[in-house]
Amino acid sequence: MGETVVDLLPEVTWVGVLIKAVLILAIISALAGFGTFIERKVLAFMQRRLGPMHVGPYGLLQIAADGIKLFTKEDIIPQNANKFIFKIAPVITAATAFIALSAVPVFPDFTIPEFIPVLGGVFVPSIASDLNIGILFVLGMMAAGLYGPLLAGMSQANKWGIIGAARTAVQFLSYEVVTGLSILAPIMLVGSLSFVDFNNYQHDEGVWMMFYQPVAFVLFLIAGFAETNRTPFDLLEHEAEVVSGYATEYSGMRWGMFFIGEYANMITISVIASIVFMGGYNPETMLFGFSIGWLLIMLKIAFFFFLMLWVRASWPHIRPDQLMWLCWKVLMPLALINILITALVVMV
Amino acid sequence: MSLEQFKNRNVGVQNYTTLDVGVSPTTNKAKFVQFITRAVKGELFVGLWVTGKAMFKALFQGDMHTVKYPFEKMPISPRYRAIHDMLRLLESGSYRCIGCGLCEKICISNCISMDTRYDENQRKEVSEYTINFGRCIFCGYCAEVCPELAIVHGPRYENASEQRAGFSLFEDMLTPIDKLNLQQEYDGFGAISPNADENIKQTPLAY
Ligand code: SF4
Ligand code: SF4
């Protein structure tokens, strides 16, 4: 595979790809850990609490404490579980979440400044690989990630786990159609599946996609919440109903991997929403003569991340049958109508 | 009220008014209309607004409700029945307990034990006085029965201990003679807590 990638993308060398892959893995895992901290803090503030306060300044080192706890906890595998699948399921969730990120551009391309030794002057396309089927790849990978909860729930010989797995299937079947259909309309407008083209299209048009395609934007957001298993669609592991759903029997780092996968997915969805609908990084946005596209996209990603936490603090979650009703009877027809109208407009 | 009336009274009905919650739709069309109105009306954003406002107030207007407990303590109500205190007479500094034994007698968990003797003036005084806080149920009878207001419930409520029996001696509970000016008088059974004014606010139903 290495050779073909290098051939396809002249400015991407295999060393660069390797470095970027490691960077993505490191930064996103760190961000996922930090995300748990932010989530606890934001939820606490919205409930007028302080949140974690005692480990480190403002409780910042709580992540480290949690990490130590997760790593040193006993790894329990239930007696009647299918051991192989039980062990491999969390890896699927975490791995697919990270693989999906490999085709997502987070920053604009940049050149490393000259004054930095050795690497100075190197042009860096800041995407691990600009696939020409980027969106398809990312959505497919995130969908494949659902095998994690599904297999985990079915392998652990626990009734709550089975219910969690069943709900995974229900949720998966419901929202995946909406995700695909909602993003189809923007794809028709842009005429490409590459994220970089999306970014450039909005840049050329000068208008964010979310104003061209408000319906698609809302539908995608809703489906994105379901995809990342967030409130109001957190059916898979809703404590009040199914103990912990698919994660009931997991402990220690295996459970932690589910968590990292979930947060990495949240970041991915935030990035996709920012790039596809909110203008993405725009290298020529200038403020005082500096290109601030990278800053803007970080703000956009942060906003979507915050929105997920905000929604979690505010809204009740819905029942599985309501989710199916919503996805199949409301969102899917809306998405179809949206595609139809877009198609007519594109044709004319 | 006669006994008959008293037995038949219905506590639940007289003063309650039912809220107007509207009617649930039954037909599919009505359900659809309700769905659309709710979706378009932006009720969801009201929810976001409420939590957003709560966060803003908590962060910037000091409306944070966490009490960092071991470092920060809420004032407790004077009616709270915590570990007992033995009070002194403010004028002379000698202790108020006259050794009448009423508290020992009334204590329903038998945890007060005391002994008395005659002092040099042939007056009764307490020689031994202990309360076993492992047995005390903090019913407050002892404080209520005391004719001299000598035994009262103080503000110390952290009474976790390593052993089941925890005896408190008379001297431990007695106001130290050098702290006599700080001795708090018991406020009485209807007393409100010192921060009661701050705690008055609109009920959540007000919005
Ligand atoms: S509070 Fe009740 S149980 Fe405790 S010492 Fe007084 S009378 Fe006895
Ligand atoms: S009732 Fe009061 S005065 Fe009598 S023995 Fe008890 S503490 Fe002393």
Give an overview of the whole structure.
The complex is a heterodimer of chains A (348) and B (207). Chain A has one domain (78-104, 131-347). Chain A has 14 helices and four strands. Chain A has helices spanning 2-8, 14-46, 62-72, 83-101, 134-144, 147-155, 159-190, 195-205, 209-212, 214-227, 239-242, 252-277, 293-314, 320-347, and strands at 110-111, 123-124, 286-287, 290-291. Chain A has a two-stranded antiparallel sheet with strand order 1-2. In chain A, helix 4 (83-101) packs antiparallel against helix 6, helix 6 runs antiparallel to helix 7 and helix 10 runs antiparallel to helix 12. The longest helix of chain A is centred in the first third of the chain and has 33 residues, at 14-46. Chain A starts with a helix and ends with a helix. With 207 residues, chain B is of the alpha+beta class. Chain B contains seven helices and five strands; from the N terminus they run H-H-H-E-H-E-E-H-E-E-H-H. Chain B has helices at residues 3-8, 28-41, 43-60, 102-106, 141-145, 170-173, 196-199; strands at 84-86, 112-118, 124-132, 151-153, 167-169. Chain B has a three-stranded antiparallel beta sheet with strand order 2-3-5. In chain B, strands 1-4 form a two-stranded antiparallel sheet. The interface between A and B is medium-sized, with 14 and 17 residues. The complex binds iron/sulfur cluster (2 copies).
